[in-house]
């Protein structure tokens, strides 16, 4: 090791202290022990490999599933003076990157998982000095995860051919079952699992069966203050809801993949700058946006999974002030989800079904929502949180059975 980790934290990153489990994760990595870190979005996963990449001799190879994500990360790393590069099919300066890598002039090198099976790339790795493998979005390696990428399965042989190089897998969204699978798939021991706290105590969770979704969303929003996000399931749903909510006295903009990229960028920038705007969006919205004062997130329909729900609602209240996550759902959401599952590849159906069942348990419970969420991520939680709809006003036995019937008849 060439530099003290705390000095690097202060001098390079400008942070006063580690946050949450960061010091634990960084400590293990610097000890050369294989690790899986499960930390919520925004918890600071990047630092867990960026810092070791500066403390250790050699390059940290970062596996990341999306080129756009890599380029964001690259910019952020370079901004604090880390010597970093990407090696992808779209890069024009590949020769230069390879030369820098060979010469030991890179702290971080970002690659896509499919490169792992490329023989000339493996040769390149053998000719260079590797300090660490960082596998970002590691849930992609698991068929139980919500975003399985077959390319991630190519990583294990590569990792195993460099047994002396430690591995750090990172993910925000893996339930207990997926966590165990990632450990197996990537050859990380059970005691290498570090799960950060998932609780977001300032977010109030509320889940309501729907009658007329758009009217319920409008009524909910009329009672809220500050900026918020409304997630609709389809582009058409976004358009309709945005129209309905417009003219209610505060700015409303749509966001979905069908809009012109320039319009999308403009709407996103307007939202980030606004103190009272409602953005109506598909789930494509929110990845990587930095707006700490989002006061509410509404789901106008069932999300895809508990992981998705947690991630999307997690965009509310990052400043720590009170925020609300309101979900409206109907029995037809479950019917449609079941139909969709029937159409996916047979091998993936059990995982998808388990995910839907878990979501069903969250929406139909008469008990604490937070407890179900936290336990889903393998965290213990008290019986009641005092800050979800069911804890704040326990449903009567009649309400509860009506809800249960809606779910069961779906
Ligand atoms: P993740 O990948 O877990 O979603 P990031 O690595 O993108 O999170 O980090 C989220 C934000 O937290 C970044 O703006 C980062 O600079 C900041 N951050 C990370 N570690 C710390 C720390 N120890 N103290 C303060 N801010 C931090
Ligand atoms: Mg990240």
UniProtKB/TrEMBL annotation:
<keyword id="KW-0378">Hydrolase</keyword>
<keyword id="KW-0227">DNA damage</keyword>
<keyword id="KW-0479">Metal-binding</keyword>
<keyword id="KW-0547">Nucleotide-binding</keyword>
<keyword id="KW-0234">DNA repair</keyword>
<comment type="similarity">
    <text>Belongs to the helicase family. RecQ subfamily.</text>
</comment>
<feature type="domain" description="Helicase C-terminal">
    <location>
        <begin position="216"/>
        <end position="360"/>
    </location>
</feature>
<keyword id="KW-0413">Isomerase</keyword>
<keyword id="KW-0238">DNA-binding</keyword>
<keyword id="KW-0347">Helicase</keyword>
<protein>
    <recommendedName>
        <fullName>DNA helicase RecQ</fullName>
        <ecNumber>5.6.2.4</ecNumber>
    </recommendedName>
</protein>
<feature type="domain" description="Helicase ATP-binding">
    <location>
        <begin position="26"/>
        <end position="192"/>
    </location>
</feature>
<keyword id="KW-0067">ATP-binding</keyword>
<dbReference type="GO" id="GO:0004386">
    <property type="term" value="F:helicase activity"/>
</dbReference>
<keyword id="KW-0233">DNA recombination</keyword>
<keyword id="KW-0862">Zinc</keyword>
